[in-house]
């Protein structure tokens, strides 16, 4: 997601899409649903909905503001984000705790993240995840622990990793691609290891959810090859082609993780926040009326629609990071498509919102209007399957460059609400 924040703005292409009609539920007026409240005993009680923000740690994008701060300063900055969530009447913080095959807790599997001290593997002198969980719950917030399964480093030099790093102990697990290092998803031992590393946090902390972003197989990089031919030759004989084998690898990771979470703690949710387009309708009649240059099914080998329809996950939070009316990927077309995708599955639909685009001069004119995001929530209010929204990212919630978040809160979050459960 943190990388996708830069990627999604440029992944639409000019291919003509053959759109299909999508059944949508009856619309209800904003007065009936926006910031919806139920009359109970003469008082207004907000409907259950998730109101969240992502707090990214990779490359110190949101928090900590810089590597090497004192433990007290790091803690103070983290608490400030939790307090900001309360002030904005949000109810969920999605904190990135495994940004690059490392950890923001004392993990027996992986080293301390370098984004804390500036040195990978160095103990920061406190437990960020443990503190985040206890302090979030003290404020009535849910804490979703956000993990990236396969990214190892934002460079391709294994010697820069701490000597005890699993990627150095198992160099055969790692592939360079697009200027980064990744664990190879096709190796069964890799899939088991990354699950073990993530599930350690589920066992040790009272987190409310395990959360993944949009990175599975890496986003395509022109002219570069993700060289897993040898792995495919070893493990892929039962599949018609490499794409089907790769999708099965990702499916296994999702299904197995879901099963293991529930065996450890049944009440812990499992949610995924994928890139907003599963497939274009021109590629697949079941796809959305879009012309996206990236399709998760074909390019990331992530069958996001399939995971929902099979009920493997508790919630899906597609990153619908485009404005209403954007020709190649229209928010007003993608949201109804996702609404229909989750219908009848028991999987909650939360919508990932591109707050970071509001007021960015590089973005289309719609994003220069502080009311664009508020219009997203007004539109979503007509679709009963939508159970909330999540904003990327924490720093943008705080700075609120043109007042777009203020507008959302004023228009839609006048009352506090509890997350759906």
TrEMBL record:
Source organism phylogeny: Bacteria, Bacillati, Actinomycetota, Actinomycetes, Kitasatosporales
UniProt domain Glycosyl hydrolase-like: residue ranges: 49-363
SUPFAM superfamilies, per the entry: (Trans)glycosidases (SSF51445)
Protein known as: Glycosyl hydrolase-like 10 domain-containing protein
Protein keywords: Signal
Top-level taxon: Bacteria
């Amino acid at each position: 997601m943190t990388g996708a924040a830069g990627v999604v703005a440029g992944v639409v292409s000019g291919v003509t899409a053959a759109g299909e009609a999508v059944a949508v539920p009856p619309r209800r007026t904003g007065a009936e649903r926006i910031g919806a409240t139920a009359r109970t005993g003469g008082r207004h009680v907000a409907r259950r909905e998730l109101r969240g923000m992502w707090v990214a740690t990779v490359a110190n994008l949101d928090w900590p503001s810089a590597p090497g701060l004192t433990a007290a300063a790091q803690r103070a900055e983290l608490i400030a984000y939790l307090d900001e969530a309360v002030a904005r009447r949000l109810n969920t913080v999605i904190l990135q705790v495994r940004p690059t095959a490392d950890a923001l807790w004392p993990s027996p599997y992986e080293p301390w993240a370098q984004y804390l001290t500036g040195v990978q593997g160095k103990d920061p002198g406190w437990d960020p995840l443990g503190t985040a969980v206890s302090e979030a719950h003290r404020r009535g917030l849910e804490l979703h622990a956000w993990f990236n399964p396969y990214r190892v480093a934002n460079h391709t030099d294994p010697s820069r990793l701490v000597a005890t790093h699993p990627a150095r102990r198992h160099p055969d697990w790692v592939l360079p691609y697009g200027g980064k290092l990744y664990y190879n998803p096709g190796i069964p031992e890799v899939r088991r290891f990354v699950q073990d590393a993530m599930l350690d946090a589920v066992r040790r902390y009272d987190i409310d959810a395990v959360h993944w972003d949009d990175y599975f197989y890496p986003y395509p990089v022109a002219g570069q090859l993700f060289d897993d031919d040898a792995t495919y030759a070893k493990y892929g004989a039962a599949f018609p082609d490499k794409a089907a084998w790769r999708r099965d690898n990702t499916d296994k990771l999702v299904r197995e993780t879901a099963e293991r979470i529930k065996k450890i703690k049944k009440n812990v949710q499992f949610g995924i926040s994928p890139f907003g387009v599963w497939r274009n309708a021109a590629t697949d009649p079941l796809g959305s009326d879009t012309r996206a240059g990236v399709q998760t099914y074909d390019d990331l080998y992530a069958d996001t629609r399939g995971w929902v329809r099979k009920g493997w996950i508790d919630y899906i939070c597609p990153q619908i990071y485009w404005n209403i009316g954007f020709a190649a990927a229209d928010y007003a077309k993608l949201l109804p498509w996702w609404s229909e995708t989750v219908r009848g599955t028991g999987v909650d639909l939360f919508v990932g919102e591109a707050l970071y685009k509001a007021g960015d001069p590089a973005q289309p004119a719609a994003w220069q209007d502080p009311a664009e995001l508020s219009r997203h929530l007004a539109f979503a209010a007509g679709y009963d399957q939508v159970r909330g929204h999540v904003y990327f990212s924490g720093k943008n919630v705080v700075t609120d460059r043109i007042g777009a978040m203020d507008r959302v809160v004023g228009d839609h979050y006048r009352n506090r609400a509890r997350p759906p459960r």
